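== Sequence, C-alpha cells ==
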Amino acid sequence: MRYRSLLLLGAPGSGKGTQGKILGTIPGFFHCASGEIFRSLDPKSSAGQLFWHYSTRGELVPDALTVQIWQEHLRSMIDQGRFRPQEDYLVLDGIPRNVNQVHMLAPYVEILRVFHLSCPNRAILLERLRQRARKEGRPDDAKEEVILQRLKTYEEETRPILSCFSEDLVLHVDATQLPYQVLRAILNALP
C-alpha cells in the first residue's frame, strides 16, 4: 500500500515544521517530520550517534539510513494506531531530502501535492533559525556556519526535488506570510 501523501518542501526556516504541526492537529492528517524522528533517537544508539555526527556539521544523514529509520517510525505509528493510512493524509516534512530519496520512497508514498514554501530572503531564514535555536534549545540551529551549510545543502540537494513532480502537483507558497496565511493557501489547495 502506498500512503496518500502531501509533501512540505522548503529551506530550513521556511516554516515546514510549523505548518506540519498545525496540519497534524487536524483529524485526517498525520505529520511525519524526519527531524523530529532523528532528534528522538537514543543518542547512545548507533543510529542516534550517526545522526548527531552529520547534524552538528549541517550535513544530511545518508539516504538508506534515513529511509530505514522513517519506515520503522511509520510502522510503529501504525501499530500504535496514531497513523491510519486508509484514512489519513501523510504529511511529509524533511523527507524526501534529495532526488534519490524521492525514488527510494516511491514504492511507499503517493505524493498528491507538493507545497513549496518559498522564502528567497535568506536573512528571514537566518533569523527564524536563530529564534528556533533559542526557543527550542536546538544546538544544530545556533551556529551561523552550520545554518549556512544547511541552506547550501538545501539549494544543492533538496530544492532539485521540485523537478521530480509535474507543475500541476506543485504549489509555490510565499513563506514570508503569517503562518495562518500559509496554512490557508495549503488548505485551499488540498486534493
